[in-house]
Every structure is written in structure tokens, then in C-alpha cells.
Design brief:
Keywords: Signal. This protein has about 290 residues and is of the alpha/beta class. Helix 3 packs parallel to helix 4. Helices cover about 40% and strands about 20% of the residues.
């Protein structure tokens, strides 16, 4: 009888210990990246990060591939994904539609935009671009569209009125600039470095440059347990160097080399991006520009 009582007591203590464990101890999180298409690419580009994050956080990470930013919002709305790595402009829509929570910023060096012309161009000021054709990158992109348009606005040029905006992929835009089919390109620093290397015999000049931009960030669904959100944030705070090293082992994530993670972030940090939306004529933030 005594042994039976001891057994029952041991079982009860075991249950008590299990119930006292943090809610996230057995949890997994479903993770997506808006600019990576397909599971194979997601595993290749973020596999090392997944392994390092799981080790540091004790949370299991399941990749959830999406075909783009719209699919990511729909997946979060349907409860299929918990955390998404996305861009500043995309965050504005995630927050407006789903009350998504900013968790941690992925800062990268030299994340700013420029208006670029050929060095031989006679154009010497932004105002001289009036009446010209200017190319941007992906429509709705923070660094390839919204920020360059803001640089032009600050220079006195109204979007879509004082110049003609066109949207070309970087290599196509560079070729068009070399042929003088367009007068300038709005781009980020990574793209400027890319075309400089691609055309070593031609020189490019920065006509106007913006301030450092709000960075990419991980957002959480409003449905995720706040304790889990805090665990994710704490993992980046306590293991940031190891996570950054893991992320940048793949060449696709080279843009984050020399960067860092910022785990103190609020929605107000992205008010500047909302002003960029307004600058291109968009006053409702629930839809992606160009969709």
C-alpha cells in the first residue's frame, strides 16, 4: 500500500511539473519569408538560420513557403503562418489588415535609396529631371519605389505629374539608361553596387540620396501567444551574433553581412513608410501597391 501511495504521489508531482512548464515549451512556429518563392529556396536560403534558431530558442520552426507578399498576408489571416520576415512597406499592410506585431528588425548596412544618372549626363539637379522618364524597381518596394519617389518629392518633383515613372527590372533599367531611353533610376545601394560591377566601363552618378530606411523585420500574427512572441524576441536579443552568422552563410543573404538585429521596435518606427505611401497617392494601407 505504501509503495502504491508513493507511486501515485510521484505521478501527481510529475503532472504538476508538466503543468508548470512554460506554454511555449512544446510549441512550434510556422515561418515565412515574403520574397522567397517555394519551399526548396526557403530551405536553401534559411536552413542554417532555422537550425541555429531552433537550438537557441528550443522552439521548432516549420517553414511555410509563400509565393509573395499577398500570399503571406492571406496565409497569416487564415492562421497558417505565425511569423513572417518581410519588408517595411509590406509590414505597413500586414499591420493595417491583420494588426500584425513587429518583433525584431533585421538591420543591414547602407540601406538607403538614391536617384542615379549616368556620370556623363548633363542633368545636375533633381529639378532638371522634370518632364523626364524615371525608372523604379519593383512597384511598392520601399527602397526601389517609395523611397526614391520621396527623394524626388523632397527635391520638388510631384510623383506622376512632374515626371513619368516606369517600372523596369534593374538590368533592363540599366540598359535603358545607357541608351538614354530614361533619364534616371531610383534604386537602393545594393543595386547601385550591382550595376557598377556589371558595367565597369561606364560611370554612374548619384543625383540625390535619401536617409537610412526602416529595415526588414519579422512580424507576428496577432493570434500568436505573447509568451511565444517574447521568446522569439529574447532569442534574437541573447543570441544575435550566432543567428546573424547563420543567416549570412548563404550568398542570397549577403545583404545582411555587417548588420545586426534590433529587438526594440514599435509600430511608430514605420510611420515614415506610411508617409511614403501617401507621397505616391496611396492613403489606405490595407492593399499592396501594384496588386
Amino acid at each position: 500500500m505504501l509503495n502504491r501511495r508513493k507511486l501515485v504521489a510521484s505521478v501527481m508531482i510529475g503532472f504538476a511539473c508538466l503543468s508548470a512548464m512554460p506554454a511555449h515549451a512544446q510549441e512550434k512556429i510556422r515561418f515565412a519569408v515574403t520574397d522567397i518563392d517555394g519551399l526548396e529556396s526557403l530551405q536553401r536560403e534559411f536552413g542554417p538560420f532555422k537550425e541555429a534558431f531552433e537550438k537557441a530558442s528550443k522552439l521548432r520552426v516549420d517553414f511555410f513557403p509563400v509565393s509573395g507578399r499577398t500570399a503571406a498576408v492571406e496565409a497569416m489571416n487564415a492562421g497558417q503562418v505565425d511569423f513572417v520576415l518581410t519588408g517595411p512597406a509590406e509590414y505597413v499592410v500586414f499591420n493595417a489588415r491583420l494588426k500584425a506585431v513587429p518583433v525584431v528588425v533585421w538591420e543591414r548596412p547602407n540601406y538607403r535609396s538614391s536617384i542615379v544618372v549616368l556620370d556623363e549626363s548633363p542633368i545636375r539637379s533633381l529639378t532638371e529631371l522634370k518632364g523626364k522618364k524615371i525608372s523604379f524597381g519593383e512597384i511598392g518596394s520601399t527602397s526601389q519605389h517609395l523611397a526614391p519617389a520621396t527623394i524626388l518629392s523632397d527635391g520638388g518633383l510631384n510623383y506622376g505629374k512632374d515626371y513619368e515613372p516606369v517600372f523596369l527590372k534593374l538590368n533592363v533599367a540599366a540598359e535603358a539608361l545607357l541608351r538614354n531611353d530614361i533619364a534616371a533610376i531610383g534604386m537602393n545601394q545594393t543595386h547601385l553596387e550591382r550595376i557598377t560591377k556589371a558595367f565597369p566601363n561606364r560611370k554612374f552618378r548619384t543625383l540625390g540620396e535619401g536617409a537610412n530606411l526602416p529595415n526588414d523585420l519579422i512580424v507576428a500574427s496577432s493570434k500568436v501567444n505573447p509568451d511565444v512572441v517574447e521568446t522569439v524576441r529574447k532569442t534574437f536579443r541573447d543570441h544575435g551574433l550566432a543567428l546573424l552568422a547563420a543567416v549570412t552563410t548563404t550568398k542570397e543573404n549577403a545583404k545582411f553581412i555587417g548588420g545586426s538585429f534590433q529587438y526594440t521596435v514599435s509600430d511608430r518606427d514605420y510611420d515614415g513608410v506610411r508617409k511614403m505611401f501617401v507621397n505616391v497617392g496611396v492613403r489606405e494601407f490595407t492593399q499592396f501597391i501594384g496588386n
